[in-house]
Known about the structure:
Elements: E1 2-8, E2 13-19, E3 25-29, H1 35-44, E4 48-53, H2 59-62, H3 65-72, E5 76-77, H4 83-86, H5 89-96, E6 115-118, E7 121-127, E8 136-140, E9 145-149, E10 152-153, E11 156-157, H6 167-178, E12 186-189, E13 195-196, H7 197-203
Amino acid sequence: MIHEIFPVGPLQCNCSVIGDPTTREAIVIDPGDDIDRVTAALDTHRLTVKQIAITHAHIDHVGGAMKLKKLTGAPILLNESDTALLKMLDIQAAWVGMKSPGAVAIDSSLNGGDLVTVGSIRGNVIHTPGHTEGSVCIYFPAQEKLIAGDTLFAGSIGRTDLPGGSFDKIMRSLHREVLALPDETLVVPGHGELTTIGEERSTNPFLQK
Ligand SMILES: [Zn+2]
């Protein structure tokens, strides 16, 4: 599996470009900004984007989605429970001092239990409400990788003080869904350094009982 991870935008959201080396099909996860960098990664690996998946509707994750869709024609997948947040992108832009990217439309909802496929690569969508109601993680079992969005970070967890956030829900999502994954799972958080489930299970201060 081709997997390029690079930070985009002023808040340095980790964007993933995941591609099948045989079919040359790709999925882009969280193209928050810097779409030139995304298309450069696609060109380098001669990949064609089939899907644009967004872990949640915060501007730093979704801001570049429409631009990428216009360039590639790929549909935008985002859990519909984040529709209210998606309608607040102008307000979100003001919070973080970014230029509003304009309206973003969801082509289909990314729901818990959904399978995301790109060539022979399969990702399981896990609904992990808490950071936002529509937050999802995408787990690639064959590659033992989790794209965690802003649900889990190395040594921390997503903030829950923004509209739609819930500390009780993120803790439930982490304990019931995320920590149910094997220790070897490589975690690609929405921001910052990569980690593993085992590392976070044993050292993350928010996950100690
Ligand atoms: Zn966020």
